[in-house]
């Protein structure tokens, strides 16, 4: 693994066996444009991955994590190392304020398996990011998020 990988922290936020996902903006210059993915983002200099996660979730959906997230793992490709955390979503989705992205929704395990999900805001079916889908499939297989 290269030291030049960009560190990011992402959240698997779960509620009643479903998973909160962000439909990323459909901007060609960003990673996974127009794909469903996790909330999260870059780890800033001097910040721990957990601190970055909490900051990013607050910035992106106005949600303060009420339960300490659990580290699920680290996943990397040729550009990014993802610090993946899980935590229950303890408020209803209508209490969240989407401040980054095109849409958000709670996806069921069968939606994850299909690899795509309908967005009412985009008015179309959009794909899940292959990396995030694989991570969620592993999380579901580990019985993650099914204990709340």
Automatic annotation (TrEMBL):
Name the record gives this protein: NUDIX hydrolase
Family: Belongs to the Nudix hydrolase family.
Naturally occurring in which organism (per UniProt): Lusitaniella coriacea LEGE 07157
InterPro entries hit by this protein: Nudix_hydrolase (IPR020476), NUDIX_hydrolase-like_dom_sf (IPR015797), NUDIX_hydrolase_CS (IPR020084), NUDIX_hydrolase_dom (IPR000086)
Source taxon at top rank: Bacteria
Pfam families given in the database record: NUDIX (PF00293)
Keywords: Hydrolase
SUPFAM superfamilies to which the protein is assigned, alphabetical: Nudix
One MF term in the entry's GO annotations: hydrolase activity
Lineage: Bacteria, Bacillati, Cyanobacteriota, Cyanophyceae, Spirulinales
Domain Nudix hydrolase: 4-131
